[in-house]
Amino acid sequence: MERKQTKNKKRMKLELDRLSNLPSDVTEQILSYLPIKEAVRTSILSSNWRHKWATLRRLVFDDKTAKRNSIRRERAIDHVLLLHRGPINTFKLSSEEYIHSYEFDRWILYLSGFSIKEFILERHPSGSYSISSCLFSYKDLNHLGLRNCSLNPPLTFKGFAMLKSLDIRNVSVAKDVLEKIIVGSPLPERMILFDLVSVGVLEVDAPNLQLLKVVGVFEEIKLQNVPNLVNVSIGQKRIDYKEVSRRNSSKLLQYFLSLPRIERLTIEGCLLEQCVVNSFPLPAELPEPLSCLNFLYISMRLNSLDDILVATLLLKSSPALQALEIEVRHGNKSNAEEQATDWLNKNRLWEFTQLRRLKVTGFSCVTGEVNFLDYLFSSLPALQELEISFRDKKNLRKQKRKRVDAAAGGDSSNRKCTFNQLRIMKVTNCSGVKAEACFIRFLLSSSPMLNTMILQPVSAGISWELVELMIWFNRYSAHAELKVLKPLCPLSESYNGSYTEGRYLSTTESYSDDSSHSDDFSDSDESFDSDDD
Question: Which residues on adjacent β-strands are paired with residue 233?
Answer without folding.
Answer: 213, 266
